[in-house]
Design a protein that fits this description.
By secondary structure, this protein is α/β, with parallel strands linked by helices. Helix content is 42%, strand content 14%. It has 2 domains: 58 residues, no CATH class; 320 residues, Alpha-Beta Barrel (TIM Barrel), CATH 3.20.20.70.
Length: 390
């Protein structure tokens, strides 16, 4: 919709508060906490979706970003026991776990030699024997082998444990990691910041203050990062907005976040399996409100292996302008929790085709959103790239 059509939609809204919110969005004014909650509680999906799509197109037009990346998961052995996690195995139950050596991880990196990937994403469990020096050596080894490969690695949960075990401050630990080759941080480990919820689902790992402090420190070093929110479990709408408000406030201060990624709770094989998963309507509303509320975040991303390909396409009409990347089939975090994508991998041609099917403009990006190639005039079926080259 163009601005005139959106104005007609806002004018037709009968609820005075929602109409006021609509005008604020049209005027590019920030909405407040209570207004964010009201969008969840009172707005129809069509209303909030149209507003979010307008914001998306004002910022990015039809451009939809993806990158060529691959994942390394060093271990699923973890000292923490998050109630929502289907992925990790406690250190006392390592029979079902894996622990990769530096050589094994470098074998994965080298398997992409000669392929045009731009990013390696490294996250996993918190293994008591994989200490800070182990991961610094991994970073240095990757950079020595392929200097141009962007390393996006380690959630604050992993980093907090490393730093405490190494008896270094957050500032010193982040400096050492950055010097060893860490380029940016992923958004994981945020879950829900509010202590009432965090106490019930992940009480033993780094809290909201610690998570935000690590990202702020990274930003002070000139690094960028992402942010996530785990939704659709025991949290309220107010908890979601509280979470986004804390991120928005830090972004006002540092400007270091690239993208916000709502992550859908999946209930297979974890301690919260009794909780019903959110519906597709609820999912789309989450993305739409995120795009509206997170006004200082340049990008909103839908992680397609978590949602499935068709639903990821749908998010592109509800504020999303990024659907992540080629991923490759090494990531198990969502597959183990029951996502639709049990072997999540797409070639560049697959991604281009998926984006074009919903009339959007596919643009390959680097991790920091430098545009590498615009595929809008390229026929996906005729791409010289295939699943062998990502």
């Amino acid at each position: 919709m163009n601005s005139a059509a959106i104005k007609v939609l806002v004018d037709a809204e009968l609820d005075p508060q929602l109409q006021s919110i609509g005008y604020k969005i049209l005027n590019k004014e920030r909405i407040n906490f209570d207004e964010g909650v009201a969008l969840f509680e009172k707005a129809s999906l069509s209303y909030v979706g149209a507003l979010a799509n307008w914001v998306r197109e004002e910022k990015h037009g039809n451009k939809t970003y993806f990158n060529r990346n691959f994942h390394i998961e060093p271990t699923n052995v973890c000292v923490f026991s998050c109630a929502f996690c289907s992925y990790s195995r406690l250190y006392s139950n390592r029979e079902e776990g894996w622990e990769l050596s530096i050589d094994q991880m470098m074998h994965i990196v080298k398997s992409y030699d000669g392929k045009p990937v731009t990013e390696v994403h490294i996250v996993g469990g918190v293994h008591p024997k994989m200490n800070m020096e182990f991961f610094l050596e991994l970073l240095r080894t990757i950079k020595a082998h392929r200097p141009a490969l962007h390393i996006k690695a380690f959630t604050p949960v992993e980093l907090d444990y490393m730093f405490k075990k190494a008896k270094v401050s957050v500032a010193e630990g982040m400096r050492l990691a950055h010097e060893a080759g860490l380029d940016s941080l992923p958004g994981g480990g945020a879950e829900i910041f509010h202590p009432d919820i965090r106490k019930q689902i992940c009480d033993d790992k780094v809290d909201a203050v610690g998570w935000l402090n690590i990202h702020e420190t990274a930003h002070q070093l000139g690094m960028h990062s992402n942010a996530t929110l785990l939704y659709g479990h025991i949290e309220s709408f107010s908890h979601r907005i509280d979470h986004m408000e804390r991120l928005r406030s830090l972004q006002d201060k540092t400007g270091g976040f690239n993208t916000f990624i709502p992550l859908k709770f999946r209930n297979q094989d974890n301690d919260m399996s009794h909780i019903k998963e959110s519906t597709i309507v609820e999912d789309m509303k989450m993305y739409a409100v995120s795009r509206i509320y997170m006004d200082n975040f340049p990008h909103i991303k839908a992680y397609w292996p978590m949602l499935g390909r068709k639903n990821a396409q749908l998010t592109l009409s509800f504020g999303v302008n990024d659907i992540d990347g080629t991923i490759d089939d090494s990531t198990k975090i969502y597959a183990m929790a029951g996502s639709e994508e049990q072997t999540p991998t797409m070639s560049t041609a697959d991604l281009v085709r998926l984006i074009k099917q919903v009339k959007r403009q596919p643009v390959e990006r680097g991790t920091l959103y430098n545009e590498i190639r615009d595929y809008s005039l390229v026929d996906a079926t005729g791409l010289e790239l295939d699943s062998q080259t990502n």
